[in-house]
Write a structure and sequence with these properties.
The complex is a heterodimer. Chain A is α/β, with parallel strands linked by helices. Chain A is built from 11 helices and 8 strands. Chain A is globular. Classes of the chains: A alpha/beta, B alpha/beta. At the A-B interface, helix 6, helix 8 and helix 10 of A face helix 6, helix 8 and helix 10 of B.
């Protein structure tokens, strides 16, 4: 991650990288508050003006923990024409997609209809965000692919939205967030998995989200850094829930991507699951395989924020435990903890693994030729 | 198999309270009356259902009663069998779950007095952890000061999932008392169930709760480190009990990275998280969440960058290993000595104190 303290010339913000890469976590933003209105029924314009967006957290504006930087984004990523970071396609192309040779960019819109308390509003906003992704982004730059955002707490509405987008190659995955009203393996979310499997889209589970639960099992912490680090613990528990509830037994073709939650913890979690499973199998008798096998077969991992041990051998050993074929490079552009493509992998990686890491795994998973 | 060496310190033993009524002799008239008049039930936590396979190894399960409720069994199955010079008792009785601070206080006092009479007085090797009514900081500190007069209490015990993250300043008077009295804070797996037992809500199954203990320890370490507990109390040791430890290296990579990025938010954190862990945090050995072969585990020890973090534990009577394999395969004899003897003695200064106030 690089923290921007001083402004720097935009051309210098990326070292040019010669080989093409996939960036599996890009965050597009709206330039203005009413940019979604053309995609929303009139009823919702008035609703939003009057009641605003009410998520499973108390703040009417902004996040519960103030971010490290405005919009959690790089200070050098403000578009020259105005608007927040990530809201201009032309500036994204100039600052990121072109110099970094991004051949495939997966859009993960945040601050959508996910995590809202009003489910009708959630469904309407999510559908609008999906139309907006096509019109503002994917139809204008063929390198960019969208994620179908869905009203995550309303399985029926979410499944309908997924089926509505079936076959539209503007989208390469369905997007969920890690924190919801219940752990992600719970049955209320199964219609989402059923629909995603049916239309052949992987599900990206991005860290973050609001479900009303404290971000630790011991209540609310004090600081933003605790929330940031805590997302990886939420992701671990959400993944354990998916495995232990039998989601991958029930939906054997489902593929999932753990986005922006780290991957270093995967081996330890899998070993723990396997060990406890040998003792407590009787409680979850529908599981036919060891938990680690479901994880190995069904889960991919985006890389940012990249694990960064002092010793590169520790990194390589960790990746070998997970598999070089399961990592998907991501920058998190334009967020402040962006990973610079040219500086993420230390020396000592074979060309084949490097190619898989930066591009091929993503192309294969997302079906991009 | 790696063999234990004689003279070790078993840092995580669980003597079981047979029933709430077993504590009645240690309560005053008012609380005895409350328990009986109101028909209070036994305080068994969902973290450890009595008959769950996790709660007891099959061959350690008694014909009747709760696993861990017999001293003779603990002696033959753990203390004698693994050659322990000391065994630290961490009672996991559900006193943290009650909501009234007065009731919690009465039950904790009874529990601590019960531990002295029924266990510590009956085997010289045994040492105790002070269970505190975290529902009231004032009462918790008073209970620490009361029990600490008996030098056989070597630690203060808290659960990893309570009302608030443990780094919160609210809890600091507990840490000040512990540091002053030479007592580490032991943080044990288990929830008070005052919050959902995971950071993403209530799961369906016991197995989920148990797996989620490891994530709860991670969030508590974040809280303890970034709130500045160890900047204020540099001599305080905390021991993560039944936490697992193989998650530690990647956890620290992430915490370190974010600390570098946003340390302006917590400027009092004046050392890197890894350094704080090395000086102030320890982990009990069991459970070892790693594959059974020694190679991977030795790599994990290398990732931990220290041989001083792990303290020997059998986690008796919980089912973490079979047979005599209380130590995982492939550990060097030097590391076994550190884990079984040197590290526990460096962590628990009161083990050296001979006289008691009995």
């Amino acid at each position: 991650m690089n923290v921007q303290i001083r402004e720097r010339p935009e051309a210098a913000s990326s070292t040019s990288i010669k080989t093409a890469i996939a960036d599996c976590d890009i965050h597009p933003a709206r330039a203005t508050k009413d940019e979604l209105y053309p995609y929303l029924a009139k009823r919702w314009h008035a609703h939003l003006e009057t009641f605003g967006i009410q998520a499973y957290q108390g703040m009417m504006e902004g996040p519960p923990y103030p971010k490290a930087q405005p919009n959690a984004s790089r200070r050098d990523a403000y578009p020259p024409e105005g608007g927040p970071q990530g809201s201009s396609l032309s500036f994204m192309q100039k600052q990121h997609l072109d110099p970094n040779n991004v051949a495939l960019g997966v859009l993960n819109p945040l601050a959508t209809g996910q995590g809202l308390r009003n489910q009708d509003l959630a469904g309407a906003v999510c559908s609008a965000i999906n139309d907006w992704q096509i019109e503002k982004w994917t139809s204008k730059d063929s390198r960019l692919k969208g994620s179908v955002v869905v009203a995550n707490e309303d399985g029926v509405s979410a499944a309908a939205e997924i089926r509505k987008r079936a076959g539209d190659r503007s989208f390469v995955q369905v997007l969920l967030l890690s924190r919801n009203v219940e752990p992600l393996g719970q049955r209320r979310y199964w219609p989402i998995y059923e629909a995603a499997q049916e239309v052949g889209l992987p599900i990206g589970v991005h860290a973050f989200g609001f479900g009303g639960n404290p971000i630790t099992a011991s209540g609310w912490p004090s600081h933003y850094i605790e929330e940031m680090v805590g997302h990886s613990q939420c992701q671990q528990t959400a993944l354990a829930s998916l495995v232990l509830e039998g989601v991958f037994e029930r939906f054997p073709k489902l593929k999932m991507v753990m986005v922006e939650a780290g991957f270093g913890w995967a081996p330890s979690l899998a070993w723990r699951l396997d060990k406890v499973f040998t003792r407590l199998h009787a409680e979850v008798p529908y599981l036919k395989r060891k938990p680690s096998e479901y994880i190995r077969d069904h889960i991919w991992w985006t890389t940012q924020p990249m694990e960064d041990p002092e010793s590169r051998d520790h990194l390589f050993q960790t990746i070998e435990w997970i598999g070089w074929d399961k990592l998907l490079f991501a920058t998190d552009y334009p967020h402040w903890d962006y990973d610079e493509p040219s500086r993420v992998l230390p020396a000592g990686v074979s060309d084949a693994n490097r190619q898989a890491f930066y591009l091929d795994n993503a192309k294969q998973l997302y079906g991009i030729s | 198999m790696t063999s234990p060496i004689a003279g070790g310190v078993d840092c995580d033993l669980h003597p079981a309270v047979p029933h709430l009524t077993s504590l009645l002799p240690y309560m005053n008239d008012y609380w005895r009356d409350q328990v009986t008049t109101r028909g209070m039930t036994d305080l068994i936590s969902q973290s450890y259902p009595t008959n769950s396979p996790i709660s007891s190894r099959p061959d350690w399960r008694p014909a009747q009663g709760k696993p861990g409720s017999s001293l003779a069994d603990m002696q033959s199955q753990a203390l004698d069998r693994f050659g322990a010079a000391y065994g630290i008792c961490n009672p996991l009785y559900g006193v943290q779950m009650v909501f009234s601070e007065d009731m919690a206080d009465a039950f904790c006092r009874a529990l601590n007095d019960w531990l002295v009479k029924e266990w510590l007085d009956r085997d010289d090797r045994l040492r105790g952890s002070i269970v505190i009514p975290v529902q009231s900081i004032e009462k918790a500190v008073a209970e620490i000061e009361r029990c600490a007069q008996d030098k056989r209490f070597v630690q203060v015990l808290m659960l990893v999932m309570g009302d608030m993250p443990l780094g919160k300043r609210h809890y600091w008077p507990i840490y000040a008392a512990a540091e002053r009295l030479g007592l580490p804070i032991g943080i044990h797996a288990g929830s008070a169930y005052h919050n959902p037992p995971s950071s993403v809500g209530w799961g369906s199954y016991h197995i989920e709760d148990y797996v989620a203990q490891a994530q709860a320890f991670q969030t508590q370490l974040t809280s303890l480190i970034v709130e500045g507990v160890f900047a204020r109390h540099p001599n305080l040791k905390m021991v993560m009990l039944e936490s697992g430890f193989t998650w530690l290296p990647p956890f620290l990579w992430r915490l370190h990275k974010f600390w570098r990025g946003i340390r302006m938010e917590t400027p009092w954190v004046d050392r890197a998280p890894l350094e704080i862990v090395r000086s102030n945090i320890r982990f009990s050995l069991q459970p070892v969440d790693a594959p059974p072969e020694g190679d991977t585990l030795n790599r994990l020890f290398d990732h931990m960058q220290s041989d001083e973090l792990i303290l020997f534990s059998s986690d008796y009577p919980h089912w973490q290993f079979d047979g005599d394999e209380v130590l995982p395969q492939g550990l060097s004899q030097a590391l076994v000595r550190k884990i079984m003897i040197d590290n526990p003695h460096a962590t628990y200064p009161r083990l050296k104190l001979k006289e008691t106030t009995r």
